[in-house]
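User: I'll paste a sequence; please echo it back and then give the predicted structure.

Assistant: Echoing your sequence first, then the prediction.
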Amino acid sequence: TPAGVQSLAVLLMELQPGADGSQILAADALYQLGRVEEAYRLLLSIGPISPRAPILARLALLQLHRGFLYDTNQLLKKLIQCGDTSCLRPLLAVAQQKDLALLQAHCHSAAKRILEGTREESAVREAVAYLSIAIMASGGEAADSLLERARCYALLGQQKTAIFDFSAILKEHPKHVQALCGRGFTYLMLNQQKECTHDILAALQINTDIVIKDILSLKDKARKLVCDWLHQFCRNNLSDILVTSTVPCHGEKLRDAFIIGGALMRTDCRDPRWHLLYVDILVAKGEIKAAGAHLCQVFGQEPRDAVAQARVGVVEAWQQKYCSAARRLSKLIEKDASSLDFLLTLIPFNQRKRMAQV
């Protein structure tokens, strides 16, 4: 019991006068007994003017408990400057839950204030230290602090450590959109296309608006690469579907394709590739009227570009306008034969057969 520990600590203090280990033990016992003022005075009486990290940690927690936030800030700064926050672990094992919650919130807020002021390396490292204390205080479960720390590690170029923190969040919260985006963008920094695409798609399936906002916040080069990878994944996915399924395909099979196609158009509505992809997905589902309308809206009634004209040809084949369809599609033979092979799979077998006869 705390009372028994306190009695034992007093005995040790008598046997080993001047040794701070027994005094720290006594202070912890007094804190658990609710005798916070006594614990604070005992810690102040220990050692030199610049106390060791275990004493600083306890003084910070006690001052936070007493509501003296300025003193808490100064003590935490000194603790972080010592570079030994591991001494918090035994203290946190005996701390009251409400004090742990206070410490977590206080350190998280301190880190946010630092990051709002500057992103210099020294400041980011200091923020990491505060966030680490917050995470320890939460028992490793503070998703908001883990998220901020992961972002800090990414800023510091420690991508693998950042991925570890993002993954820790996702282990407990698999649908955490910001963690999925954060990990996906970190994989982007490591040029790991498959992993990046997987995480961004998973995030898009949960909340498209948040993901698009995050993609748009990236620098131009990174944003372009993410969009290119999503486009490539969607094209491959659509091709695989058309190999195993005949058109019109079931809507559920095209769910991911619609999500990606819609997201790409919202990130940059000026890129014709995204519109062509969206038209192809509509055709694959059999929504010919919508595909034709989208083509006309984006590329005009008579598109100049051969690839857009070829899509008009696909729509016309569905509408049984075989001569016009064949003429438009034939223009793609010299320019992009592989695209022509794909577009032909978007046309039902009977219409394809009749168009070939024409």
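The chain has a mean pLDDT of 91. The first helix runs from residue 2 to 15.
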